[in-house]
Amino acid sequence: xxxxxxxxxxxxxxxxxxxxxxxxxxxxxxxxxxxxxxxxxxxxxxxxxxxxxxxxxxxxxxxxxxxxxxxxxxxxxxxxxxxxxxxxxxxxxxxxxxxxxxxxxxxxxxxxxxxxxxxxxxxxxxxxxxxxxxxxx
Length: 137
Fold this sequence. Notes:
Blueprint: E1 4-7, E2 13-15, H1 16-21, E3 35-37, E4 49-56, E5 59-66, H2 71-77, E6 81-82, H3 85-89, H4 103-114, H5 122-126
Antiparallel strand pairs: 1-2, 1-3, 4-5, 4-6
């Protein structure tokens, strides 16, 4: 998915690609304040990582944590809230026709959120919930 940023004033979360499309930066120039990069892997996916936020001393902090790690439940127990995939996907211009640059990213995020793959094996989850194609002999 990429890099995530948090608006330290409002707690709003967006991806670098969404902010770039909105004209708030690009791959070489980070978005201006109050946007702050959430530290984490540059290729993080919300399938494996959770975006968390918490308000401390008047500003919003963000964290990216591996869902299956010990740190995830620890932060939740300390008052951090998970930012839903739908909320992240909703960031962008007001009209759908003006989202051409981020449409494929939003579609991918929404497809992950809508997919009912929780009951599948890890191998099927890695394939997006679809069974592998049989090998040609």
